[in-house]
Design a protein that fits this description.
Layout lengths: L20 E4 L6 E7 L7 E8 L1 H13 L3 H8 L1 H8 E3 L7 E6 L4 E5 L1 E3 L38 E6 L2 E6 L4 E4 L9 H6 L6 H11 L11 H9 L2 H15 L3 H33 L6 E5 L5 E5 L8 E3 L5 E2 L3 E6 L1 E5 L1 H4 L5 E3 L21 E2 L4 E6 L7 E6 L5 H10 L7 H31 L3 H15 L4 H5 L1 H12 L2 E3 L3 H6 L4 E4 L11 E9 L2 E2 L13 H8 L4 E3 L2 E3 L2 H10 L1 E5 L13 E5 L2 H4 L12 E10 L4 E8 L5 E7 L1 H6 L10 H9 L3 E11 L4 H6 L2 H4 L4 E9 L6 H10 L3 E5 L4 H11 L7 E8 L8 E6 L2 E2 L12 H10 L1 E2 L11 E6 H10 L4 H7 E5 L3 H13 L4 E5 L5 H6 L2 E4 L11 E3 L6 H38 L7 H19 L20 H27 L18 H21 L13 H19 L3 H7 L9 H25 L3 H11 ...
Parallel strand pairs: 22-34, 22-41, 34-40, 35-39, 39-40, 41-42, 42-43
Antiparallel strand pairs: 1-2, 2-3, 3-4, 3-5, 5-6, 7-8, 8-9, 9-10, 11-12, 11-13, 13-20, 14-19, 15-18, 15-20, 16-17, 16-19, 21-43, 23-24, 23-33, 25-26, 27-28, 28-29, 29-30, 30-31, 31-32, 32-33, 35-36, 36-44, 37-38, 44-45
EC number: 7.2.2.-
Subcellular location: Membrane
Catalytic activity: ATP + H2O = ADP + phosphate + H(+)
């Protein structure tokens, strides 16, 4: 379904019905035929209604008959034109077809479908006016379409696999949501009891089948669709012309080549469709058990599920076929196929929720949600109760469906190269028309027959716009894709390879991308008497007490097939205690016991105390778990120690969050100072807390609300984890920095930790400073503000040996390890901005004018939600950056899709939305992609220029020969078109990429001045050489030319042979000149296939010119130049050599010269940079006092900015 953006990552939003804009006719006051759907989102659609018009239909079919079906073919390419020609605009309520225009200005035509009403049709989805109180609130309406006299059918249309239905009360089409649309959590937990078979069938007609069907067209259908492509139509018409013109040899070769190309294309297209279908079909063919409204169970096909169905999750697990909310029991789920995380996660029921009015949102209630495509390993239940879940989304509306849709309907790529290529072809077509007019005129004057005039005119068009041009341009990309595949980098969107050649900025996730996935326990910092104690590097030696108990019990670990599994950090923490975890009973029934999970020490000294032989064993039972919540930034458990008369609550989470829930008397005074000193060293710090629950009983513990328990805690200490950089990270970042590729970090981790990692890997250079933008929301009588402050720069790291000293001594050492910042030494450009997700949201809302500056100087974006990562990438793109993104988890999926070139380091299904997937789990793939992208882009430029020159050279040759009533013979055309041009164009892309990245970037525009100057100057030079040879031929005494009868063509003439010989060399040496090497590709001579090809072709052309063989001359239809004219042959060779030298000087010494660039700048009078980010960079360089460090910037009030001094001690 269309995604509603969430602007606040820490407060779950209540989805409101979008304010749909229904346009009104100002004259009549009635509703118009156009409206805006999904306003303000990336899925915004302008919807216009149309209705069949009998008169238009008659005229349309008449025109199709008159044009012999040509109009049908055009309408196949432009269905929106057909809509306008056959239907008339009308009100949306009467439309049977809608024209949709998306935010990328693409047009789509969808037909409105109708479903007759059925008994049991779900009213709650058909009366959106009543949903303001939430589903199950008891509000009733009588204005749904079932109760209206004129509403007899359910009307909807499908756009990109999502349904939009007609709401009669709002008089508009709106998206058809499932239970993720304003359904309260408490309703999901208590109010759904299942549907009868009749109700389910009625809902099925509304929501459609629960399947993600990827249509695999038949081979015949694929063939027809491919053949009807404009490129193949043009090629087909050209081939027909060549057969009619008796150019059978070349036409036959093109038919064979096209057939092979078509067969390969059809095979690859069908193979990709089958692969995608097989990948998503695992959840389509399953059977599920549903609970009916009578309480009975029934097994049905998963395709029949609808939102609201109650399903039973089997004890042995299953593959989920829908998105469902767990309502009873727990489930251990592997979400690796979606998120890339190899660690199973535990899903808990939504039964006990703090806020009864809280609305279910799938992004903020993931811990309760089972997603389609994920593998439920096993379930656990209480007593004999089934593990049940309520279906909330089905089909393409599921998370898996959204990922598949991202592949089927990718975001259009706005790349200048492809836009310019189309413009260039249009220019060439215009030239062809002009040449055709001249050719027709010349032949009419010469008295040619009408049939011959038409054929020669068409011939010019096929010369100037070669049918092989699109295929030739993809050669470089195909070779690059194969090389990437061998390097372990797979691509599902080949055009993105060329885009990668223009990347100017690369974003990276931190954990698992720049750093190792796992965390190592560095030490524990206990608190006693509101003071931090010595760092303990071996937690198992801690005395028995709340701190050790919290490390042993406050986690979500479980055993699967006897193996302890869970979050890697929890595993490290628990392993450090050297305790054991016991779970009684079978895996699927562990909730039958009062204390399902027990943790206890394994050493005799801690397990039993010798002083009291009758003392009970020291065991802790985990009574209840409050799982980790990203919004709360913490988790907690209720435990009971064997022999104790009370229960305990242990909590762990983000230090700042846990501190706010603790008693002030238990928190050390230097909490922030100590925390900061660890985080800026790159450590990940987790806080631990405890609370005695003296009056809590078992049944109360199971029903207590989380918010009532997680307060007034006692602070226990800090858990210090170390996350090391991957060994490949720093060298790659260094390589990118040398190539002037800007690097940015987008992470969900702590800001100080992220800054430390940025310094360690080289994103922030040692001599540069980091300025933190800390924003605060508006308060009473105080506007929103931004506090700009320097991040402290560490110059030394803690060692393990230092951790054994007293903490007082450590604090002194840490204090001495920081560099004092002298403000006078700070140079304005040498700084980086760091910002967290909370501040980002505030600045976007209250300081939107600062966003471009923050993004321009931002290097570290910490505590960012997935949606905020997407926002940062989009802001960078708005500045004119070509942006790359590298990440390894589902939280990076949105940014990977949004970026111009996204690389997923995970092979999970979430990665299918990313253009590139790396099998190598580190960022070495980034420079490889950029090198291959640059190579492919330069190759595409070279091939395009070569094909353009090939067309223009042949165009000039033919126009010259037309003036002498002659032309090339079929074998001459075949030699040029097939042997030289096609072979050379294929081998030009075989040159491999250069071995290193350089600061220079390849050109990205085909209509840029350097490219145009190169093409135009080479056209002039080649035309000059041909005309020069012709003039020399005419002026040469003793050469007698047999007159060609009027109205006839003779291919065997002095003129045709001379022009053919010279042009043959031109095609050959231009291929070498356009195959440029360093700094983006390896030297030309390393492409052995192309080198050998050019040497063979050059040798053959030289033999034909200097030492012609009679049989070859006759076969090629060449005029045999007498031996007494040997000097003429050598003179032609001199023309060729001179032609080559001039072309070589232009292409090698002039095109890339700095002098030419200066001349271009002077001629163009370029005053401001083209890219917006360069303009902002210039503005920032002119503002040495921005950002105002040690000051506070307030939101605009009365059109003024206010800053205040706020010195940092």
């Amino acid at each position: 379904m269309p995604v509603h953006k969430i602007t606040n990552s820490y407060v779950p939003p209540v989805r409101k019905e979008p304010e749909y804009h229904l346009l009104v006719d100002p004259n009549s006051g009635s509703h118009c035929n156009t409206t805006v759907l999904n306003p303000g989102t990336d899925d915004e659609l302008h919807c216009t209604g149309y209705r069949w018009n009998a008169g238009k239909l008659f005229l349309y079919y008449t025109a199709c008959f008159i044009t012999l079906g040509i109009l049908v073919l055009v309408m196949h390419w432009k269905p929106d034109w057909k809509l306008v020609l056959t239907q008339s605009p009308c009100k949306l309520e009467k439309a049977n077809t809608v024209l949709l225009k998306d935010c990328y200005d693409r047009l789509h035509v969808s037909h409105v479908r109708k479903v007759p009403p059925e008994e049991g049709l779900p009213n709650e989805y058909l009366k959106p006016d009543c949903r303001e109180n939430g589903y199950g609130s008891g509000a009733e309406c009588d204005d749904s379409f079932l109760n209206k006299q004129d509403a007899r059918v359910f009307r909807y249309f499908v756009h990109v696999n999502y349904r939009y239905y007609w709401n009669y009360s709002k008089q508009i089409f709106i998206p058809l949501w499932g239970l993720d649309d304003e359904t309260r959590c408490i309703d999901l937990a208590e109010n759904f009891r299942g549907y009868s078979a009749e109700e389910q069938n009625a809902r099925l007609k509304i929501f459609g089948e629960n399947s993600i069907e990827i249509e695999v067209p038949s081979r015949l259908r694929l063939l027809i669709d491919e053949v009807l492509n404009p490129f193949y139509i043009f090629q087909l018409l050209s081939t027909i012309y060549w057969f009619v013109d008796e150019y059978t040899s070349y036409a036959s070769c093109i038919v064979v080549i096209s057939a092979i190309s078509l067969a390969i294309s059809l095979y690859e297209t069908r193979k990709q469709r089958v692969t995608l279908r097989d990948m998503v079909s695992s959840s389509n063919s399953t059977e599920v058990t549903v609970i009916r409204d009578t309480g009975e169970s029934e097994t049905i096909s998963a395709s029949l599920l609808v939102p609201g169905d109650v399903i039973v999750i089997p004890p042995i697990g299953c593959i989920m076929s829908c998105d469902a909310v767990l309502t009873a029991g727990n489930a251990i789920v592997s979400e690796g196929i979606l998120t890339g995380e190899s660690v199973p996660v535990t899903k808990i029921p939504i039964s006990h929720h703090d806020n009864e009015e809280e609305v279910y949102h799938i992004d903020f209630h993931r811990r309760f949600t089972l997603f389609a495509g994920t593998h439920v390993i096993q379930t656990r239940y209480y007593e004999k109760t089934d593990v049940t879940a309520v279906v909330v989304r089905t089909g393409f509306s599921t998370l898996k469906g959204e990922l598949v849709n991202a592949i089927l309907f990718p975001k259009p790529m706005d790349f200048k190269f492809y836009q310019d290529a189309f413009k260039f072809v249009l220019v060439m077509a215009s030239i062809a028309v002009c040449g055709m007019v001249y050719g027709i005129y010349a032949q009419i004057i010469d008295g040619q027959e009408t049939e011959e005039v038409i054929l020669r005119g068409i011939d010019i068009i096929t010369i100037v716009v070669p049918p092989s041009l699109p295929a030739a341009m993809t050669v470089g990309t195909i070779y690059a894709q194969n090389r990437l595949k061998h390097a372990g980098l797979f691509c599902i969107s080949p055009p993105r390879i060329n885009v990668s050649g223009k990347l100017k900025l690369f974003c990276f996730d931190k954990t698992g991308t720049l750093t190792e996935e796992g965390l190592d326990l560095w030490g524990v910092v206990p608190v006693e008497g509101d003071r931090f104690q010595s760092v303990v590097t071996a937690p198992d030696v801690l005395p028995r007490g709340p701190l050790l108990a919290s490390m042993a019990s406050c986690h979500s670990l479980t055993k699967i097939d006897g193996e302890l599994t869970g979050d890697p950090m929890d595993l490290k923490m628990f392993a450090a205690t050297k305790w054991v975890l016991l779970e009684a009973g079978r895996d699927t029934s562990k909730f039958n016991l009062i204390s399902p999970t027990i943790v206890k020490p394994v050493t005799k000294e801690t397990y039993l105390e010798a002083m009291s032989p009758d003392e009970v064993p020291y065991e802790i039972g985990i009574v209840r778990q409050f799982h980790f919540s990203s919004s709360l930034q913490m988790m907690s458990v209720i435990t009971r120690t064997l022999g104790s008369r009370h229960m305990d609550l242990y909590a762990k989470g983000a230090p700042e969050k846990l501190m706010s829930l603790c008693l002030d008397s238990s928190v050390p005074d230097d909490f922030h100072e100590v925390l900061e000193r660890f985080t800026i060293q790159g450590f990940r710090v987790i806080a631990l807390a405890h609370k005695k629950l003296k009056k809590l009983q078992w049944h109360q513990a199971q029903r207590a609300k989380r918010g009532e328990l997680e307060r007034e805690l006692s602070f226990l200490g800090l858990l210090v984890m170390q996350n090391t950089l991957k060994p490949e990270t720093t060298p790659v970042i260094s390589e990118l920095r040398k190539a002037v590729i800007r690097t940015v970090m987008l992470t969900g981790d702590n800001m100080h930790t992220a800054i430390s990692v940025a310094r360690d890997c080289g994103m922030v250079e040692p001599e540069h400073y980091v300025i933190m933008a800390v924003a605060s929301p508006p308060e009473e009588n105080k506007p929103a503000s931004i506090h700009w402050e320097y991040a402290i720069t560490p110059t030394a790291e803690l060692s393990d040996s230092e951790s054994s000293d007293t903490f007082v001594a450590e604090k002194e050492k840490l204090h001495n390890s920081y560099q004092e910042i002298v403000l006078e030494q700070v140079i304005a450009p040498c700084y980086h901005i760091a910002i967290n997700g909370r501040s980002w949201t505030i600045i976007r809302e209250h300081f939107p004018e600062l966003i471009p500056k923050v993004v321009m100087k931002g290097t570290v974006f910490a505590r960012m939600s997935p949606e905020q990562k997407v926002q940062v990438v989009e802001e960078l793109q708005d500045l004119g950056y070509i942006v790359g993104m590298c990440g390894d988890g589902a939280n990076d999926c949105g940014a990977l899709k949004t970026a111009h070139a996204g690389i997923s380091l995970s092979e999970a299904e979430a990665s299918v939305a990313s253009p590139f997937t790396s099998k190598v789990p580190n960022i070495t793939c980034v420079p490889i992609l950029m090198r291959e992208g640059r190579c492919a882009l330069v190759t595409s430029f070279g091939v395009f220029k070569y094909m353009a020159l090939y067309s223009m050279i042949q165009f000039i040759s033919v126009l010259i020969l037309y003036a002498y009533n002659t032309n090339f013979g079929d074998m001459e055309f075949l030699y040029i078109d097939l042997v030289i041009t096609t072979t050379v164009a294929v081998f030009m892309g075989y040159t491999k990429s250069y071995h290193k990245l350089v600061a220079k970037r390849p050109y990205g525009s085909l209509v840029g001045i350097p490219t145009l100057f190169s093409v135009i100057s080479q056209i002039v030079v080649q035309a000059g050489a041909q005309i020069g040879v012709l003039l020399y031929l005419i002026s040469r005494p003793g050469i007698t030319r047999d007159p060609v009868p009027k109205g006839e063509f003779d291919p065997v003439t002095w003129e045709s042979t001379a022009i053919f010989t010279v042009s043959s060399f031109q095609y050959i040496f231009l291929a070498a000149l356009f195959s440029k090497g360093p700094p983006f590709r390896k030297p030309f001579y390393t492409n052995y296939l192309l080198l050998a090809c050019l040497l063979l072709l050059g040798s053959f052309s030289l033999v034909v010119l200097i030492w012609p063989v009679e049989k070859i001359s006759d076969f090629m239809e060449l005029y045999r130049i007498p031996d007494e004219f040997m000097s003429f042959r050598w003179m032609m060779l001199c023309f060729v050599v001179g032609n080559f030298l001039i072309s070589f000087i232009i292409e090698v010494f002039i095109i890339d010269s700095k002098l030419l660039k200066k001349i271009f700048r002077l001629c163009c009078k370029k005053r401001r940079p083209k890219n917006r980010y360069k303009v902002i960079e210039q503005e920032l360089n002119a503002l040495p006092d921005w950002p105002p460090v040690n000051e506070v910037t307030y939101a605009q009030s009365n059109d003024q900015d206010h800053t205040a001094d706020d010195s940092i001690s």
